[in-house]
Amino acid sequence: MKLPAPLKKQPKPTIHNLRDVRIARGENQETFWNRYGVTQSCGSRYETERDIPVPTGALALLHLTGVISDAALAKAIKAAV
Question: If pLDDT is split at 50, 70 and 90, which confidence band does 8 have?
């Protein structure tokens, strides 16, 4: 039985390297960006050409550094839509 390749070591998250963080986590754009209330297509633009809005970047960084838990983030996003 072949084991899956281990995930890459995650870089320290910054607003400028969220693409690298997403790839290191082994997540596709849809999964990663939907978590922060962003569509896949918009997340793709953030990764390549557009600046990430400060509230979105701040939310992602707070979550990725453990300040906001998965459960708290999911609850807040659910309440917002």
Answer: low
